[in-house]
Amino acid sequence: MKYQRLHIRVPASGDAILLERGDVKVEASVINVSVGGLCITAPSHLIDKQEYQVQIITPSHGNIRFSGFPVYQTFESIGIKITSIEKDQLRIIYQIVGNFQLTDDFIKYVDQRDIIHDWLVDESGEDIAITFETEKEKDT
Description:
- The chain is α+β, with helices and mostly antiparallel strands.
- The protein has a domain at 10-105: Thrombin, subunit H (Beta Barrel).
- The chain is 21% helix and 39% strand.
- It has 3 helices and 6 strands.
- The protein has a 6-stranded antiparallel β-barrel with strand order 1-2-3-6-5-4.
- A hairpin with a 2-residue loop joins strand 1 (10-20) and strand 2 (23-34).
- The longest helix has 15 residues, at 87-101.
- The model has no long low-confidence stretch (mean pLDDT 81).
């Protein structure tokens, strides 16, 4: 499952439950979140690639619910892409991301994880050349 992120992900903590037709399929811990999805760690087991109802239980923001499907998984973690979410639930995720981006830890986080590089690669993982041209000042 190759997947490239579009949104900045930030550290988060809480419990996650993945439900299939109302039955609990996976219990895990949240390690990061973005407006596009989340990553959970220590899943109780691997899951099929299908849509699940996801519930995140956070100490600071309460419960967040959405639908999503796994875009990658290992024995240690599972990445879930959001496929459907209510506006009020998405607003909570924006608050979590926005609050973290206002901290000094955000700059360290960007630097440590080379996040800028993640944004500057194409779908096949090749670097995209970026240049900035400036207009020379004209003599007046």
